[in-house]
Design goal:
By secondary structure, the chain is an alpha/beta fold. It has 17 helices and 8 strands. Bound molecules: adenine and zinc ion (ZN). It catalyses: adenine + H2O + H(+) = hypoxanthine + NH4(+).
């Protein structure tokens, strides 16, 4: 069994595997502009964040009914559980659905059909984080928050995603203030493609408690010092960074330097159906390619539970952390044959 972990950066729409996309398209009478799942998967060669987002939004057309969202959530939980995920804080993008005529209630009720009982059915506790699309207007974000008020018992927090550059966090000052008033947790993508200043702005203007990605903090030593001092968790997604070309190759990923600097890093999958792996696959990849040792891997797992929004259930956090401490890593596969 893989090391127990929390997944804190996971877009549920990014778990839509090609096979499920085709099954849902058939069920809903939708034509996809690809002959089959293999041809679709072959289109997963991205230049940057925007080229990925174009396909990500296009494929969402197959998600129409509550049952579609329930099936999507169930498929994710099955894969995540098999990779050691014990707790998941799951992003969803309401505006990407309401803009195509799918009601917010359909999305939330559908996801909740499965997430509401996920601990019993899959052994994974879950929470939902509603993300605003930063390339849409601040007014649209505020309307989305207001229309989510009937569902707030199912929503733990708000986040900010989609095309980063040119859409600085401060654009969403009011909606984050309103979310704080409603008692919601706050996170935001920052420093994925955008500059380190967006990370600072997300902290100071939006009052976020975690930074999603945050990779580009490494360009600003004073910011690194602050993130370390304030123990701000960063939800890193190594395989995503390679696929979206924010790092050239995995062996050049700054994760080891970030750990050495004392940053509170976590490892997550972002959009696993598109980027070549789920949470455990990301752990395996950094273990192998970046040669992380057991203590570093255990730290990443510890960090994931310490950064989770579990303050309403500290005994649960303590149980998960105890699982991490008790975990025995299997020995890594040997690279050379017998002498
Ligand atoms: N939406 C889904 N995945 C995303 C990512 N990696 N960055 C920004 N927005 C996203
Ligand atoms: Zn993301």
């Amino acid at each position: 069994m893989p090391v127990p972990k929390a997944e804190l950066h996971l877009h549920i729409e990014g778990t839509l595997e090609p096979e499920l996309a085709f099954a849902l398209a058939a069920r809903n009478g939708i034509d996809l502009p690809y002959a089959n799942a293999a041809e679709l998967r072959a289109a997963y060669a991205f230049e940057d964040l925007q080229s990925f987002l174009n396909l990500y939004y296009e494929l969402m057309a197959v998600l129409r009914t509550e049952q579609d969202f329930a099936d999507l959530a169930a498929a994710y939980l099955t894969r995540a559980a098999a990779q050691g995920v014990r707790h998941a804080e799951i992003f969803f993008d309401p505006q990407a659905h309401t803009s195509r005529g799918v009601a917010l209630g359909t999305v939330v009720e559908g996801l909740w059909r499965v997430l509401g009982d996920s601990e019993r059915t899959h052994g994974v506790s879950t929470q939902l984080i509603l993300c605003f699309l930063r390339d849409e207007s601040a007014e649209s974000a505020m309307q989305t928050l207001r229309s989510a008020e009937p569902y707030l018992d199912r929503i733990a927090g708000v986040g900010l995603d989609s095309a980063e550059v040119g859409h600085p966090p401060a654009k969403f000052r009011e909606v984050y203030a309103a979310a704080a008033e409603l008692g919601l947790h706050r996170v935001a993508h920052a420093g994925e493609e955008g500059p380190p200043a967006y990370i600072t702005e997300a902290l100071d203007v939006l009052g976020v408690q975690r930074i999603d990605h945050g990779l580009r903090c490494m360009e600003d030593p004073a910011l690194v010092e602050r993130l370390v001092r304030e123990r701000i968790p960063l939800t890193l997604c190594p395989l995503s960074n390679v696929r979206l070309r924010t790092v050239d190759t995995l062996d050049r990923h700054p994760l080891p330097a970030m750990l050495d600097a004392g940053l509170m890093c976590t490892v997550n999958s972002d959009d696993p159906a598109y980027f070549g792996g789920y949470a455990g696959d990301n752990f395996d990849a950094v273990r192998k390619v970046l040669a992380l040792n057991e203590e570093q891997l255990r730290d990443l797992a510890r960090n994931s539970f310490n950064a989770a929004f579990l303050e309403h259930d500290e005994p649960r956090r303590a149980r998960y952390l105890a699982e991490v401490e008790a975990y025995a890593f299997p020995s890594p596969p040997t690279t050379s044959g017998p002498a």
